[in-house]
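Dear U.,

For the methods section draft, I wanted the exact inputs and outputs in one place so we can describe them consistently. I've listed the two proteins in the order they'll appear in the manuscript figures. Please don't edit the token lines directly; just add comments below if something needs changing.

First protein:
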Amino acid sequence: TVFHLLRLERERVTHATLAQSEFLMTLVDTQLQRHLAALEVLPSSIYFETLNWREFYWRVQRMLAANPSWESIMLIDAQRREEIFDLRRPFGARIPVSAMHERDLRRVVGDGKSLVSGVESHEHPMVWLYVPVHSHGKVTHVIAVSLRARVVQDTLMAYATPESIGAIVDADGD
């Protein structure tokens, strides 16, 4: 009957849509993991022993230049909740960490694990990647990178069909 055929077609479309969504989520997750992997080498840097942040500032500028989808790299003192530096600004005096980072910092310091934030909207949407730096069993610093959300959008658009409708939504529904 017509109703049976319509139900079968609906199930086919639903299955195909879910399969494509799962594929795209895997692609985006892999891409985010790749960015995190690049960051996770930094905590082993000698600068976390020497605390020569001015030199580290210049070194990570090269890393930023090599990753055009990154907007900035920030180094945070996890105990004092201060930005030691943010590559969007000249190296100088420490400033308090912005309130927008506080919830994610609590999670990174508490869990001791890397974290991908939700989408943050400023002039253009971005996602923050946080990597903890451990010393003597506790998180002493956090390295944060702002990743342009456009990277995720470009990945999705590369695999979207012309008749597709899609959206990027983080865990907070943003």
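Second protein (the one for the lower panel):
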Amino acid sequence: IYSLPTPFYVNQKINDKERRKALRSALAATANLSLVKARGHLTEQAPLVIDSSVEKLTKTKDVEKVLHNLNLTAELARVGQRKIRAGKGKARNRKYKVKKGPLIVTSVVCPFSKAAMNIVGVDVCPVSQLNADLLAPGGQAARLTLSTEGAIQTLHAKNLFYETQASKTKEKQT
């Protein structure tokens, strides 16, 4: 029995500084409303911060209520449509194309992640596992991102995605 080959980009080495810079620029683009709208998202607010209490939600229905209360009904309707792919991809188990919707960033892995998993187009990720592919799918930056207050506190407290302390001291010495 043979396994499917892994795509070449999964194991591709990227320099740490380059990866961090890509992540920082993708994070910065999520705060720009005009870029978020240009990407196709239907929203009136770009950097959305929600209360950390939503991380305790365990039902998909409750998560949908939260998203509707944030006026993301049109966005969820846009993402809810799935189209049949053109070409031979249909025969290769890639029949449907689904649009990317909002990304929800939590402080830790929580029951909320499992609850939001069933909503089409919505991705949930803990702040420690953020990457440029989630923030800029297809290389196109400015994905609509909802962050919990705890995620933003964790981002600042741990100085995630910034240069290491050793590289900062090297710059001071020169």
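Candidate sentences for the figure legend, describing the second protein: The two ends are 57 Å apart (CA to CA). Residues 16-30 form the longest helix (15 residues).

Thanks,
Y.
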